[in-house]
Amino acid sequence: INNYNNYYISKEGKIYNKITKRFLKPITNASGYNYITLSKNNIKQNYYIHVLVAKTYISCNKSYKRVTNNN
Q1: Does residue 55 contact residue 4 with C-beta atoms inside 8 Å?
Q2: Phi-psi region of 46 (alpha: psi -120 to 50; beta: other; left: phi over 0)
């Protein structure tokens, strides 16, 4: 995952922690979106899994910007 070298995300959205050698369990918010908490330098940040997959596997072509909807 970009800026988080200790994590790997699959195309299916499974997130693996390279340090603990375990898959992270996603949390579902009230709107039904799955998110995950990533940590770097003891700073935790929540990310929607679909956004991480899009940023990791879809090119930066402007036509793809509508793939994720974060209302």
Answers
A1: no
A2: beta
State the average pLDDT over residues 43-70.
77
Check pLDDT > 80 for residue 65.
no
Backbone φ and ψ for 50, nearest 5 degrees, come out as: -65, -30
CA distance 68 to 35: 14
- 46-60 exposure pattern, b = at least 16 Cβ within 10 A, e = fewer: ebbbbebbeeeeeee
Query: What 8-state DSSP symbol labels residue 2?
Result: T
